[in-house]
Design goal:
The protein has 499 residues and is α+β, with helices and mostly antiparallel strands. It has 15 helices and 18 strands. Strands 9, 10, 11, 12, 13, 14, 15, 16, 17 and 18 form a 10-stranded antiparallel beta sheet that branches. Helix 5 packs across helix 9 and helix 11 crosses helix 12.
Length: 499
Amino acid sequence: MKNIIYFLFLTMAISSCQPNRNELTKQKDYSFLTDSLMIDQQLENHKLAGFSLVVFENYNIVYSNQFGLKSVNSNEKIDHNTAFSTASISKPITALLCFILDEKGLIDLDEPIDNYLKSWHLPKSQFTEIKNPTWKQFLNHTAGTSQHGFADFYEGDTIPTIKQSLLGKLPRYDKEIEFLFTPGTSWSYSGGGYVIVQMALEDTLNKSIAELTDEYIFSPLDLKNTTMVQPNQKGFLTNVAFVHDKDNNVIKTGLPITPQVAPSGLWSTPTDLTKLTIEIQNALRNKENQVISHNVAKKIIEVTALKDAVGGWSYGWQRSFGFDNYDWFMCNGSNTGVGGDIFATTTDGNGFVFLANGEKPNRFPVIDQTRRKLLSLMNWKRELSKEETLQIPNELKASLIGTYKDFLYGQGMPTKILERNNRLYVESPFFQHFKGQKDSELIYLKTGLFKIIDYPNSLKFNIRNGAIHSVIIERDNLDVEIELSSTEKSRVGKGESHP
């Protein structure tokens, strides 16, 4: 008995001396990222005004740094409180607001959104004769509406109302928003769909979306440098980055005004966006979350669209990336003269956020190099256990090798399956773009499905006469079959996705 007591005491003493993961994360020195990323040099090389970056690991911010200027006209440096126009990063914030309001019983996201509209109603369409689209279908881009994105306005311009926006009285559009397919049957990115969500929220709750997001998200999370208030409105932020063109000149007043707030009107910092993202990650594990419930977190990142959805989409979040066997949720924001990204793992609390105030040719090279470097330097890898995998039989391996039309993202680029060192790899331009390596290993699972290390969906190959006939993409109880044609030497897919 004494030995048992001694053993338990010793075990507890040893355990108390072992630092937990949080402590190890805090002890680790991440300053090496500054020299490794060489962002100052990148800004100079690409004539980019400024760049702000936050990296988080194990649910903690581990690195934050800012580079360059708020405006080339003032030479005032960007700091960690400097907010940027975030463009489409607004969409997952709007979706989050809707799910919080749904949980509180203030709206019902499964109901037709037209029931909540007062200022304007959905246009009549042959595609909506049988069933009107729900809130959720607008939030995950399956409602079928047009109007992809919007032009910015500046002080001195005539700023349209959101009703005028929906009526098409805009520089980019000359007709009312319309339905392009039956809701729920396909996927098409629609900023206009989020404008409809904005109108429904404001009509129903008699508050602006800026007031609603502040009340239910920003203030409870103490995000002091985040707002949906616009530059021409009272209460706009004072520490902000100005937008710049490809010649690194400030565009007009430098402060874009976005009446379409729900899809693209958010201003924030990488620090605040990281705090929000970590709150979602904590809510997913149902631990240390303060504002977002476990149920809401699960719903907002749930994959709800695969067909035509560029590898997978949820409510505002893109779910098409799976670097190093981690499942990720991410969002890209891109407006004239400004943009950035959120990348976050669904488990383990890892990721990064960056925003840059320059035009696409200036910021894209910096963003791409920074993302690739971070994914390599941070070394976030989730290994598959040997118990999950099988060796691919030679006959099956021979059937898979070939060149195909893109079946991973549906973008028409060539995708190859090739053998190297007795292993199969999938080569895709998307892997090269996002991770900086042209291929990723194809793993055979004991379930009979295949998994690509840097792709989140499972694959089932249907073989006919020694060649791939079709591929079934599977994810979260959804599946899409893509038919492929083949020749003797190479197999090039020509089929489209089917529900």
